[in-house]
Amino acid sequence: MPEALRITDLHVRYGRGESQVKALNGVNLVQQEGEIYCLVGESGSGKSTLALAIMGLLPGSATVPKGSIVFNGVDLLKANSEYLRTLRGNEISMVFQDAQAALNPVHLVGPQLEEVIRAHTDVSARTANTMAQDILRELGLPDPRRIMGSYPFSLSGGMCQRVVMAIALVLGPKLLIADEPTSGLDVTLQAEILDRLKRLSADQHASILLITHDMGVVAHMARDVGVIYAGSMVESAPVIPVFKEPQHPYTYSLLQSVARLDDVDKNLQPMRGAPPDMVDLPDECPFLPRCNKALARCRAEPKPALAEIGPGHTVACYNPMTPIEQR
Q1: Tens-place pLDDT, residues 224-246
Q2: What is the largest CA-CA distance in the chain?
Q3: Which pairing describes strands 21-32 and 3-14: parallel, antiparallel, or unpaired?
């Protein structure tokens, strides 16, 4: 299957000097065309930084010392600003985590949506208005004309979320990055938005990079899953092996802290400890202080690289949950 996106050994730093925050530390990711890839991890693990790096929207304080982000055969880290400007909103779009903050509070919703259409096409103002109303209607907003004449602060959180999704989807992008699009929404609205994303992937053959910390969303949406911790990818696999046989102790601990419908008597086990200081990361595995399977090797050697342990299943661990001789 053709690749939509390939990220290789990506490093991102914030700040300068000794107080540099090591936000991403060698991330590798392959997104297939037309598939939903879920990126999961705790808050502060680097998920949103990765999304901003793909979009070319990292703040001025950020640097990318090494790595590549290849989309349509072009390394986006080497592309000029004009190319990225034509790409964003047209070929690659992003649904931001905080929908109300992503919208300009002093402008009506309609002009914000129409601006995206007219920036990337040659359609008339009337056609842009019609396209904007159509996409709002498709996303379940019953009175698009009224919505377009409203300010973001007068809309509910769910309505703002759909408007942001409309802005991202109106031009039918090849790659949609959804950064926790259901956070802060009630479960009914969450299910509706996730189902719309699945239909988008199926109907338009769009690739979706879905960023979340909710393992329930991962089970419902993903074909492939990447688990990120302290700015590094620690496990990547199809969704079923991740849930049935997680190999990295961090992935295993995440699943142990989540209730499951197929095991109602399960005792939840909160993950002990706290994530590492991203300014002073150790050379060894960053999960070491929280790991109950650590070996002497884990303390003596640099952090392990991703290694394949099964078809499409890679893990960065010296002592995975299932020993090699048992696999």
Answers
A1: 999 999 999 999 999 999 998 99
A2: 68
A3: antiparallel
